[in-house]
Amino acid sequence: MLSIIYVGIGGFIGAIFRFLLSNTLQGSSRFPLGTLGVNILGAFTLSFITYSGEKALALPDSSRLFLTVGLLGAFTTMSTFSLESFKLLEEQQNILFLANLALNNLLCLTGIYLGKIASALL
After folding, report:
1. Of 105, 91, 94, nearest to 39 (Cα)?
2. CA 76 to CA 91: how far, in whole Å?
3. Is the separation of the CB atoms in 59 and 49 below 8 Å?
4. Which residue of 23, 26, 57, 77 has the fewest CB atoms within a 10 Å radius of its CB?
5. Whole domain around residue 46: which residue ranges?
């Protein structure tokens, strides 16, 4: 039961962070910059915590649940990314659609890699 509380509190905080950062980054751009930024930061942070947790941080299970499943699970926005991509496709914004797919995938994988590298520095 305590695990559910950790995940729930993390999710609450992660959703608020996502809302604030996404809106700040988005501005008036037609391209979904807010979602892209949140996905990159989320990928990096999840990777960093995961790889660091195996070595230097030695996080207890409760902290790992709070951070990865709760906070970052609510923070990252793959469902929003998918919907925004589909809407770009529906609107026949083919270049923006392809850019959104490519940038989210490439930069989020880069975030995972950089998070792993950063965790090795601990």
Report:
1. 105
2. 24
3. yes
4. 23
5. 2-120
Condensed to tens digits (0 to 9), the pLDDT of residues 24-46 reads 999 999 999 999 999 999 999 99
- Decide if 102 contacts 34 (C-beta within 8 A): no
Q: How far is CA 112 from the centre of its chain?
A: 10
**Do 37 and 22 touch, CB atoms closer than 8 A?**
yes
What six digits make up the tokens of 57? 């941080």
Cα–Cα distance, 70 to 8 (Å, whole number)? 6
- Contact (CB, 8 A) for 41 and 111: yes
CA dist 102 and 86 (Å) reads 14
Closest CA to 114 of 44, 39, 37, 40: 44
Domain count for the chain:
1
